[in-house]
Design goal:
Chain lengths: 424, 424
């Protein structure tokens, strides 16, 4: 099965935006057992898109394009593909009604041009877009004029915005692939996500015990992100389920407490689920992370059952006013210190009556470091029913990475503590 | 001038890593006036890399590859290219000395295989790598066996790790390009960033007035992100500066207050700069955005001079405790209401003594909507020296987009208000 991905957009070629579609779609396809063999990005010009689509159709069984389905003059993929395949375009009344309804909900007039997104090439399947106005389109190119022998290919066109593309991929593209391009043999893939442990240590711990599974043809991969490492196990063929299952049990045994979730699950999602399942509440007191932890926790639907408040006390007076940190503690130890992290956590817990309160104070940089407390210094406090702990870490990265890694460490401290606590 | 970029790496095709090279290299080249016409990613297999390089050389004047220059068995680009071009490989004593010295500095024995990185194809220029062991390579392919007529092309091979590639690009590739592939005519590009206005409306407003510039050959493009739309103006030739300058003045006139910045600038960066330049301070009172605004503001270095505190009051008691919102207001109007947004903003301003306080309360979803206040309902309040305003918006998106768009609207309300206020 040959799969190609074409990302269209002049803004990609100008480096104005990061192409996150490549990683996301390649990852999703790889987890389903479809490996992308080539990815191409071209500008929004007819000649370039046409050439890229022609070449991909000459080689692949499945071609996925992203972008170029919107209402503006540089959105030309729909028309171009219809023309290339000799298909007429017809207005789809259901899509048009969806677009009208979309603008009604926004209480905005429907711009005339957006109606063009209801035009559908003859014979194309419409992939609904609940999060936007441009539907996705899927066409079976049969016979395929660009391929030797005319062997058929599927051409799937997806809209550019990730918040539209991602749910459409999960809800419409995956079922379509399973139906029209089923895999020849079973494929099983499992990702285990760890935090608080480096990539080389993960590798040292699991590579030996997994040697047998790898010998049986299992693919073992690692993926490191700020503060976390994923372990990916994949196998093909009739024994795939057994090999991956056994390998997963080995990784669970070896890395146990470091594993916070599987597949795509984020640390904060696992945490909200854990806290909610025990009816526990949380407060946050953030300084250097500046709301990063709160933002991640509140990305999880249902977070309001768990999070009572997050106090981003970015100044000393705010630490005193909202958390009751003592002026004397600030003066004696400085805002970035073990005692202040402790008072922040305890103050947040006292003020909100939450079961747990997590605090963070540190130096994100680029300025503000001293020989004693260099950029990257951070204290993470956790106040809970069993008392307060404070951890000292060094995260000497750029500002945004510092925030992400520190947030990850703080969430991990909380998860490990709650997981160890007697259930209730 | 046709430029192509080839990123090699099986891990890219599996979606294990994000291809940041594309954006980085495309952006650097675009700023120099070299626009990448096609980017391709292929796995680390000989047949795929060979095919991609051949195709690129058949079209482009400049081909840049990334990856495949290291010492491991899947690093095959160097050998493959030498073979394709019929060039022998010779050990370069200077490169070998650099590799030896590199390991001496690390006080580690030099692994035997790393010596292979000193092999240089005949006639290739060596691009030094002060941050790693694999040098970059540049070859003029003349005559070019893959191009009709044999027209020459430059092939530049860069190592995969970003911390090696980026300095090498700046120190070696840019001077090389200016020397061997100078631009034929001037190139000017300007991006204006807007917020609070949809992509179709932006286009409706600017397309007509810019018709003249487009007729003169100016390239007009749009790039939509949650809550913001960029307008990009680019032109080549002796009149480029004038055409883009006139077009920019037109866009400024038509979209004036909606423009928050130019080029890469983020809304929060423009805002922190604006507030800092007037010595104004800010407090935030976030409910449904859950720290998203605070997180964005604190991504900006120097935010601590502006932001005093952000109170993420995710529960009613927290709104009362930390912001002094009246229990009666909450009971009578509900937490998602104009009066609560008003009291949140005024409470945050009072408690922190900030010059401005921004508040947000709404329903992020997916749950919690009612017929009266559906998911996406949001009230944005701003308390400042001239009083308090509250805006009612509808952002019926998925949870994360809701937070981003709402944050964008809130930051934009603040920016417009401060920009209009009498300077101090």
């Amino acid at each position: 099965m040959l799969v190609e991905l074409i990302n269209t957009g002049t803004e990609l070629m100008l480096g104005r935006v990061l192409n996150t579609h490549q990683q996301w779609i390649c990852r999703k396809l790889a987890d389903l057992g479809y490996v992308v063999t080539r990815q191409t990005a071209v500008p929004d010009t007819g000649i370039d898109i046409r050439q890229a689509v022609m070449e991909a159709l000459s080689r692949a069984d499945l071609v996925i394009t992203t972008g170029g389905l919107g209402p503006t003059s540089d959105d030309i993929t729909r028309d171009l593909v219809a023309q290339m395949l000799g298909k007429g375009l017809k207005e789809d009344p259901e899509v048009l009604a969806h677009i009208r309804h979309f603008f009604e909900r926004l209480r905005r007039p429907m711009p005339v041009r957006t109606g063009i997104q209801a035009m559908v090439p003859e014979g194309a399947l419409v992939l609904p877009n609940p999060h936007g106005t441009a539907p996705g389109l899927a066409i079976e190119v049969r016979p395929n004029p660009y391929r030797a022998g005319g062997a058929a290919a599927w051409l799937v066109m997806l809209p550019g915005p990730p918040r539209e593309l991602r749910p459409m991929f999960a809800d419409s593209v995956v079922p379509l692939l399973k139906r029209v391009l089923p895999l020849a043999s079973p494929f099983v893939c499992r990702t285990l996500r760890t935090a608080g442990i480096g990539e080389s240590v993960v590798q040292e711990k699991v590579a030996g015990p997994l040697a047998g599974a790898v010998g049986e043809g299992m693919d073992l991969g690692y993926c490191a992100r700020p503060g976390q490492v994923d372990v990916r196990l994949a196998a093909r063929g009739p024994g795939a389920e057994r090999v991956v299952g056994e390998a997963e049990a080995i990784v669970q045994e070896v890395l146990g407490p470091q594993i916070y979730g599987i597949e795509d699950e984020e640390q904060e999602t696992a945490l909200v689920r854990l806290l909610a399942s025990r009816s526990l509440t949380l407060a946050l007191a953030e300084s250097c992370t500046g709301g990063c932890i709160a933002n991640r926790v509140t990305n999880v639907p249902g977070a309001s059952a768990v999070l009572l408040a997050a106090l981003v006390t970015y100044s000393n007076p705010a630490k005193e006013t909202f958390l009751g940190v003592q002026a004397e503690t600030l003066a004696r130890h400085g805002a970035v210190s073990e005692p202040v992290a402790r008072e922040m956590a305890e103050g947040a817990r006292r003020q909100t009556r939450a079961d747990y309160a997590l605090s963070v104070t540190g130096i994100a940089g680029p300025g503000g470091g001293t020989p004693d407390k260099p950029v990257g210094t951070v204290f993470i406090g956790l106040a809970g029913p069993a008392g307060t702990v404070v951890e000292h870490r060094m995260n000497p990265w750029d500002r945004e990475t510092f925030k992400q890694v520190t947030a990850q460490q703080a969430l991990d401290l909380l998860r490990r503590t709650v997981a160890r606590a007697p259930g209730n």
